[in-house]
# Entry
Amino acid sequence: MIYQKNQYKDQKKTVLKGETTAMERKEKTLSTIFTCFPEGRHKVLTMSYDDGRTYDRRLVALFDQYGIKGTFHLNGGTLFGGAESDRVRFEEIRELYQRHEVSCHTYTHPTISRCPLSQVVQQVIEDRKVLEAACGYPVRGMSYPNGSYSKDIMQMLPACGIEYSRVVGNTDDFGLPENYLEWKATCHHGHNLMENAERFLGLHKTQYLYMMYVWGHSYEFGDDEKEWARIEAFCKLIGGHEDIWYATNIEIVDYMNAAGNLKFSAAGDMAYNPGAIPVWISVDGTVWKIESGETKRFCRQAGL
Ligand SMILES: [Zn+2]
# Structure
């Protein structure tokens, strides 16, 4: 009887020992995989400017000088004014915004939460048609005119070909949005701009993805040279950093979609990128680039 008891005890011990070994093995083979921005970066800066006033010309030149990229939300119904118009002209859009993104802001800029939904559809579709004829690519983004939107409008936008839309307000934060159809910026350029920029530059924890998103209207700088000096000081401070990805709004959406669509093996040792753009990930701290259409097998030592 005593002998049997001991035997049982021994068996139990053996089984437990076996289980521990398996668990240990499992822990050692499960890699930590993070989504990275292009080139393995973890910070992105994007700018977002509304209404397409002629002051955009100066702002675009400033962004181009410092390698900063932005999205310009335009109203298709305002682009055909005469020489005295304070709006950019249809004919200049392709060249003016060539290093940036052209995006919707509705055709005539109504407060759309007051409009019948069927008319909001027209406002978006007609705006897209004009802007696409001007810039030569599908226009897929938007910012809400007067910051006005509703749940019904948000739900309707994907059927109108819109993949993100910016709201107004400031988060004073650097997180990515939960819902790109309700995308709130870090700050307006008149709200804690330099403080937020300094804070953003100081972020070094690579286990997070950080986004700084600044919005406004170029006409707010107007003819005030002090205001232009302020935005230039910001561009000078934040431009040209190796660890920052400078992107338009839609480039961020496209990239995050592509990253979210990577197909990983069950063991987490391979990833397939079925998308059209390369995606960067880090595996246990090593950065890997997965080309469009590529299946990449990670090994523990070598990267990229
Ligand atoms: Zn506006």
Remarks:
- Residues 1-18 have pLDDT under 50 and may be disordered.
